[in-house]
Amino acid sequence: MMMALCNASRLSIASQNLKVKKHFSQLKKNPLKSIKSKDGDVIDCVHISQQPAFDNPLLENHNIQMRPNNYPELAFAGNKFNIKSNGVQGQTYYGAKASMNVWEPQVQNPNEFSSSQLWILGGDSSDINVIEAGWHVFPQLYGDNRTRLFIFWTADGYKSTGCYNLQCSGFVQTNNVFTLGGTLSPLSTFHGSQFEIDALIWKEPSQDAWWLQCNNIIIGYWPTSLFTSLANSAPIIEWGGLVFSSESDGQHTTTQMGSGHFPEEGFSMASYMKNLQVVDDSFTLRPLSYPSIAAEQPNCYNITLGKTDDWGDFIFFGGPGRNPNCP
What are the pLDDT digits (tens) for 230-277? Predict the structure, then answer.
């Protein structure tokens, strides 16, 4: 079940019979050292030139880019630009940005997951190209129910290419400040403090790369050679939440989205994303043009859209899953 804010004609990932593939590749690397994090994760450290990305034949003889040559420029301060008259024209995008508060939703079964994320999409449903980034809870992937930073990519509609984090070759990590797949803390609390992460993905025009930045720290990039429909730009950007469930028992899952509360409850109670922006063809971050929202099962999970001077374009979203109105 997915809900998303779209800045183009909507394409529903959930209706494409999304199959979560965990590409546990047998990547044989000799770590320079192994580190045990405070939360118990064991992190193997390898030389930057020996990371899994370069096992991909599409990256043969790839020259590592340590940093982007350029950053998207801010187009406005406050509410200077009108959402309708100053959006990107032609449905061609070169990136997206969002600030999202971080929760730890309850997940019913180990093979289910709940995420808050942004999507960069291109192509048709049969071979859609997708770049994803955000946070999720995915017990089967990590062996626990903790909230973790994640990325994902595919170049063929989730069939055989792509993976989460660094579980296959593709994404080139250039900074070790963040651990992809690492736990996030502190977390937001109901009626309490709200903690956020910022995510920015953009296409660097001179480097053939989609760069990822979190909390103003460059993490790395996806070389455009990995993709077909995302080689140059993206026609669709989405922000929102996703719950994956097989629903094998005929009932709706109790897996929560976001905080587990509906968006109408508002700040400090519901999950949100704010300062939603897109990168246009002038390499500028701009507010959204004609955004639309969609919830596949609004009695289970829902979404609302708004705009203020302080938050720019924003969404509240989420829900408890199974409830009297969502059997």
Answer: 999 999 999 999 999 877 677 899 999 999 999 999 999 999 999 999
Per-domain residue ranges of the chain: 2-11+85-318
Q: How far apart are CA 301 and CA 1, in angstroms?
A: 8
Percent of the chain scored above 90 by pLDDT? 62
Q: Residues 52, 169: contact at Cβ < 8 Å?
A: yes
N- to C-terminal Cα distance for the chain?
A: 14
Q: pLDDT tens digit string along 107-125?
A: 999 999 999 999 999 998 8
Asked whether 201 and 118 are in contact (CB, 8 A), the reply is yes
d(CA 266, CA 88): 29
What pLDDT is attached to residue 68? 76
**27-70 per-position pLDDT tens digit:** 445 665 676 667 777 666 766 666 666 677 777 777 777 777 77
Contact 294, 15 (CB under 8 A): no
Contact 219, 212 (CB under 8 A): yes
CA distances from 2 to 115, 153, 186, 245, 285 (A): 9, 17, 25, 11, 26
* Per-residue buried b or exposed e for 86-115, using 16+ beta carbons within 10 Å of the residue's own CB: bbbeebebbbbbbbbbbbbbebbbebbbbb
Residue 21 has pLDDT above 60, yes or no: no
Rounded Cα–Cα distance for residues 137 and 117 (Å):
12
Selection from 107, 100, 109, 110 nearest residue 133 by Cα: 100
Indicate the class that CATH gives domain 2-11+85-318: mainly beta
Separation CA 273–CA 101 (nearest Å): 7
